[in-house]
UniProtKB/TrEMBL annotation:
Record-listed E.C. numbers: 1.2.7.4
Stored Gene3D superfamilies: 3.30.465.10, CO dehydrogenase flavoprotein, C-terminal domain (3.30.390.50), Uridine Diphospho-n-acetylenolpyruvylglucosamine Reductase, domain 2 (3.30.43.10)
Species, as recorded: Variovorax soli
Highest rank taxon of the organism: Bacteria
SMART domains according to UniProt: CO_deh_flav_C
One annotated GO molecular function: anaerobic carbon-monoxide dehydrogenase activity
The protein's enzyme class: oxidoreductase
Swiss-Prot/TrEMBL keywords: FAD, Flavoprotein, Oxidoreductase
Pfam families (alphabetical): FAD_binding_5
Classification lineage: Bacteria, Pseudomonadati, Pseudomonadota, Betaproteobacteria, Burkholderiales
Residue ranges occupied by any FAD-binding PCMH-type domain in the UniProt entry: 1-168
Name of the protein in its database record: Carbon-monoxide dehydrogenase medium subunit
């Protein structure tokens, strides 16, 4: 690990100013600190967001939950209101990585990193959530831009995420046992705006599957999901699974998610 300075701002404005000047924001540190230890990243200045109280918390606003960017996975998974009104989101948060990761990892850090196999991006995209930043609000469909890429500008910080509460929702994944990242994860919602199906772990970033969405909009059943042919041509193939295997997982896990959502 190379030498660096550590800043601990007490407000979003101060943190954004430091980030705009070249400081690297530090949220839960689950990716950044590991990269620094391996000398794959060498920021000269870290901006620790842990002391900014306005970035932590969960509140219900109308038919939506607003979750602060520095809220830990463990707290989302244990929140009684989310468990009652949006259990799929609570289940996802409660099954990220292992307990140590859930105790430190944050929703804002996960989304800003946008790992192609992370769980939270599928919840945000699958819910049609809104990412709130220090500058603006960004719709989920505009936020994710491929492998580790997002719509965030230099010095722009995620402050919260607004999740509309769907009528039905479920998350299913098959974990890669060594890393606990999903080989494939599927987040399905049915709401006033229709059906959304978000896929993580299968490509170069989280994406919506329009074929499954169209089929499930006509008939929200496992059989409708099973009728959709999944194209493997743009899916990942690596030492953990072939593209064809991931395509099959997308189908199987979507069927399970729909069945779970139906209760």
């Amino acid at each position: 690990m190379y030498a660096f300075t550590l800043e601990r701002p007490a407000s979003v404005a101060d943190a954004a100013r430091l980030a705009a000047a070249g400081g690297k924001p530090l949220a839960g540190g689950q990716t950044l600190l590991a990269s620094m230890k391996l000398r794959l990243a060498a920021p000269e200045q870290l901006v620790d967001l842990g002391g900014i109280r306005e970035l932590v918390g969960i509140r219900k606003e109308g038919n939506a939950f607003v979750i602060g960017a520095m809220t830990r996975h463990l707290d989302v998974g244990a929140n009684a209101e989310i468990k009652a009104a949006f259990p799929a989101l609570a289940w996802l948060a409660d099954h990220i990585g292992d307990r140590q990761v859930r105790a430190m990892g944050t929703i804002g850090g996960s989304l800003a990193n946008n790992d192609p196999s992370a769980c939270y991006p599928s919840a945000v995209l699958g819910s049609g959530a809104t990412v709130i930043t220090s500058k603006r609000e960004i719709a989920a469909d505009d936020f994710f831009q491929g492998l580790f890429a997002t719509a965030l500008e230099e010095g722009e910080l995620i402050t919260a995420v607004r999740f509309p509460i769907p009528k039905r929702a479920a998350y299913e994944k098959l974990r890669q046992k060594a890393s606990n990242f999903p080989l494939v994860g599927i987040f399905v919602t049915q709401g006033d705006g229709g059906v959304r199906v978000a896929v993580t772990g299968a490509g170069n970033g989280v994406f919506r599957h329009t074929g499954l969405e169209d089929a499930l909009s006509k008939s929200f059943t496992p059989e409708a999901a099973a009728s959709v042919k999944i194209d493997a041509s743009d899916l990942n193939s690596d030492l953990h699974a072939t593209a064809a295997y991931r395509a099959n997982l997308i189908s199987v896990l979507t069927q399970r998610a729909v069945r779970k959502a139906l209760g």
